[in-house]
Structure formats: structure tokens, C-alpha cells
């Protein structure tokens, strides 16, 4: 069974579309790629077939239908393709950010599902509308192929009420679904399952804290294979500070700044989502690589931004250790978690008293799977590259098999 996995994001992001194409008979990656914005009105597809050179292909128009059409053409190209015909694509799996409380498992996409995702768009305005755009484009281009949605929020539906309810009138939850949902569920699920393999223990016996640290950052407390708490909330804005997102702050700040700065609701949304985080603190960039370089050159604000980021991650780790009455392993994943030894060290330093000891030599890695805890550390530390696309492909295969 060959499965195409799509992640469609806002056009505000550098990479509006990412894809991976798997042969799920042996879980082999046949090809991967991304559609990148190179200019304000121009997109290019970086097509990377396994065992073949990367090929850059211009996208005729900067929209999802043209971009996905370019991907399908590349997959079947006689020189850089990996299949003879699009008829070999058996299913398409999609990452969908918000599924509310209604969807806690992957499912076939129907018009009713699409309508509900539209309703959820208000809770994930930078994600769901673009997820839907990618789905509709694929439906038009591959009309007879099953489409399966897997939700970022689904993994966290095991959280108890004490973890997902906010301290506001209960009617807000009953009438409007205002609660903590959590995101990055597929990543947290994947790396927790890999942790069990690396520790050679059943997942059902482990307490794990997973740190998905990328442009968006979230942590999850995973007790015996189930998410019992997570840092992102009603929207992906909550939690630790991120590249351009403020993370959790005193909500009274919103009306205060709106009044002082004369900001509309729309401007306030942009202020919190696009101008804050380490970008806002450092004044340098939302790119952690640039901030680290700037800090190394003596930029005090850049160093402060990194300190605040590491400190907020550390606080969540402490909270989740208390919530689970201990922890067996702490996992670092995603762009920063996988590729920044200095930030991993900054986060772990100062937690030796609770059994967290990082090994500087083991930690000196980027992008590879490895234990990085010191020999005497009571709590295991791991770097585990995430693979959300493989999780989506596995679940898509299972959903399609259930229809046979």
C-alpha cells in the first residue's frame, strides 16, 4: 500500500506544504519534499526522491492546487519520479491541527467532517483553513482515492478534566468548547513509542515527558502511554514562549496593551502570534539559530531570550514531574529539540537534584536518535527525531484496512 502524507500550513509560513510518500508494505520512504515560498508571489517545490538527486520545480501559481499538482507530477516523472502513475497512490493522509472534542481518532474525510473542520477554524485560524485547502485540492486531483484525517488534538483527548478545564465559568466549556486541547499530538505519540523501544520497556509502564521544541513548542506528560497533560491550550498560543508566539501570559495584559497601544483585536492577535516570543524579546529573529549566533557575539537581549525559553521549558518539566509523581525519561524532539545541544544543556542544567544529568559528550549531536543522559542520571534523557508523517501513514493504513 502506497500512502501520500500531506501537511498543509498557512501561506504565512516559509513552507506552506510538506509531504512524504511511503510504501507501507515495509514502511519505506519513497520520496519527500516541501513547497517553499521563495518570494512573496512565488513558490518552488523541492522534490527529494530516495536514492535520486533533489529536483527543484517552480510552481505555476502560489496556491495549494497548483502545488499539489506539481508534487503529483514529480512523483510520476520518468526521471525523478518513484511511481509510474498516480493510480499507484492508494490513500492520502492529512495532518489536521484541530478536531475539537468530536474527533479523537483518525477517520475518512467526508463532507460532514470538512464542515466540522470549518467550524473549528476559529480555534486554529492559522492552521485549519489551510489544512482544508489541501484536502480539497487533493480531492479534486485524486477523486477516487481515500482521504484520511489525523488530528493534532486527538492524542491529548485522554487528559482528565482537572488538566483540560480552565478556571472560568463552566458554561464556556459546555456552550463553546473552551478547554485545553493540546497540539503536536502525533509527534508526542511517536517519540513516546520510540522511547519505550529504546528503553526496552512497555510503554504502559513508563512516565515520559516529551518536549516538542520547534517553531511551535509544546510539552506533554505521558503516563503509561496516555497524555495526561500538555502545555498548548485552547489554541497553539499557550505554553512556553516560541519563535514568534508569546506562550502563556497574564490575560489581563491583552486589554491593557490594546488600550495603551490602540490595538484592534486583529492587531492584538498578530502582536501575540507573530511579533512576540523570542523574536519579540531578542529583537533579532524568530529563528533560534540566528539568536544563538547573536548571543555568542555578546547580544544581551538574545541571551535573555534564550534564557527565558529554557526557563519556561524547565518549569513545565517540573510541573509534569509533579503531576505524574515522577518521570522515567525526558525526550527532546523537533527542530530545536533535535538540533540545539546548547539549548538542551541550558534546559537540563540545574535539575541534577531531581536526577536529571546530561552528558556533554553524548549531547553533542544534531538530528540523530541517541540517549544523552549521563551514566549516573536517574532520569533518562533522549534526543529522538520526530516522524509525524510516518504516524499519519500508519494510521491511514489502519483506517483503510478497516474499510476492506
How is this structure best summarized?
The chain is an alpha/beta fold and 404 residues long. 39% of the residues lie in helices and 20% in strands. It contains 15 helices and 14 strands.
**N-C termini distance:** 13 Å
Task: Detail the poorly predicted runs.
Answer: none
Note the beta-strand portion.
Answer: 15-25%
- Sheet with most strands: strand arrangement: 5-4-3-2-1-6-8-7
Just name the CATH architecture of the largest domain. Answer: 2-Layer Sandwich
CATH fold name of the largest domain? Nucleotidyltransferase, domain 5
Number of helices: 15
The percent range for helix content is: 25-40%
Silhouette: globular
Radius of gyration: 21 Å
What is the N-to-C succession of helices and strands? EEEEEHEEHHEHHHEEEHHHHHEHHHEEH
Number of strands: 14
CATH class of the largest domain: Alpha Beta
Taking the sheet with the most strands, its summary is: 8 strands, mixed
* Assigned CATH superfamily of the largest domain: ATPase, nucleotide binding domain
* Total number of domains: 2
Would you tell me the overall average pLDDT? Answer: 92
Question: What structural class do helix, strand and pairing data support?
Answer: alpha/beta
Q: How are the elements arranged and paired?
A:
Elements: E1 2-8, E2 17-23, E3 28-39, E4 42-49, E5 55-58, H1 64-76, E6 91-96, E7 107-108, H2 111-120, H3 128-141, E8 147-151, H4 161-164, H5 170-176, H6 185-199, E9 207-213, E10 217-223, E11 226-230, H7 253-261, H8 265-274, H9 277-282, H10 288-296, H11 300-324, E12 329-333, H12 334-339, H13 341-348, H14 360-363, E13 370-371, E14 380-383, H15 388-403
Parallel strand pairs: 1-6, 6-8, 9-12, 12-14
Antiparallel strand pairs: 1-2, 2-3, 3-4, 4-5, 7-8, 9-10, 10-11, 13-14
Helix pairs in contact: 1-3, 6-15, 10-11, 11-13
Amino acid at each position: 500500500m502506497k500512502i501520500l502524507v500531506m501537511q498543509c500550513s498557512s501561506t504565512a509560513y516559509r513552507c506552506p506544504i510538506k509531504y512524504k510518500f511511503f510504501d507501507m508494505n515495509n514502511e519505506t520512504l519513497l520520496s519527500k519534499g516541501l513547497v517553499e515560498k521563495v518570494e512573496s508571489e512565488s513558490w518552488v517545490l523541492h522534490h527529494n526522491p530516495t536514492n535520486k538527486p533533489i529536483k527543484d520545480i517552480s510552481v505555476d501559481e502560489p496556491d495549494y492546487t497548483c502545488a499539489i499538482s506539481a508534487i503529483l507530477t514529480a512523483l510520476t516523472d520518468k526521471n525523478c519520479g518513484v511511481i509510474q502513475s498516480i493510480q499507484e497512490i492508494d490513500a492520502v493522509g492529512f495532518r489536521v491541527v484541530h478536531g475539537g472534542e468530536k474527533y479523537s481518532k483518525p477517520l475518512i474525510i467526508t463532507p460532514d467532517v470538512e464542515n466540522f473542520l470549518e467550524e473549528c477554524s476559529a480555534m486554529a485560524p492559522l492552521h485549519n483553513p489551510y489544512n482544508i485547502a489541501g484536502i480539497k485540492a487533493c480531492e479534486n486531483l485524486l477523486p477516487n482515492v481515500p482521504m484520511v484525517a489525523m488530528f493534532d488534538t486527538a492524542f491529548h483527548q485522554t487528559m482528565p478534566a482537572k488538566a483540560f478545564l480552565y478556571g472560568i465559568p463552566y458554561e464556556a466549556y459546555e456552550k463553546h468548547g473552551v478547554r485545553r486541547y493540546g497540539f503536536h499530538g502525533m509527534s508526542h505519540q511517536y517519540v513516546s513509542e520510540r522511547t519505550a523501544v529504546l528503553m526496552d520497556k512497555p510503554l504502559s509502564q513508563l512516565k515520559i515527558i516529551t518536549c516538542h521544541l520547534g517553531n511551535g513548542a509544546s510539552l506533554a506528560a505521558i503516563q503509561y502511554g496516555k497524555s495526561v497533560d500538555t502545555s498548548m491550550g485552547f489554541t497553539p498560543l499557550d505554553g512556553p514562549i516560541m519563535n514568534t508566539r508569546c506562550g502563556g501570559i497574564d490575560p489581563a495584559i491583552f486589554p491593557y496593551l490594546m488600550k495603551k497601544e490602540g490595538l484592534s483585536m486583529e492587531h492584538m492577535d498578530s502582536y501575540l502570534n507573530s511579533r512576540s516570543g523570542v523574536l519579540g524579546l531578542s529583537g533579532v529573529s524568530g529563528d533560534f539559530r540566528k539568536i544563538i549566533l547573536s548571543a555568542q557575539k555578546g547580544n544581551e537581549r538574545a541571551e535573555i531570550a534564550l534564557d527565558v525559553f529554557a526557563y519556561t521549558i524547565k518549569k513545565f518539566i517540573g510541573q509534569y514531574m509533579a503531576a505524574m509523581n515522577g518521570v522515567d525519561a525526558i525526550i527532546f524532539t523537533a527542530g530545536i529539540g533535535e538540533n540545539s545541544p546548547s539549548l538542551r544543556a541550558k534546559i537540563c542544567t540545574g535539575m541534577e537534584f531531581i536526577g536529571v544529568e546530561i552528558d556533554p559528550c553524548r549531547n553533542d549531536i544534531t538530528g540523530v536518535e541517541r540517549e544523552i543522559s549521563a551514566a549516573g542520571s536517574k532520569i533518562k534523557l533522549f534526543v529522538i527525531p520526530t516522524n509525524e508523517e510516518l504516524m499519519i501513514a500508519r494510521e491511514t493504513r489502519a483506517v483503510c484496512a478497516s474499510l476492506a
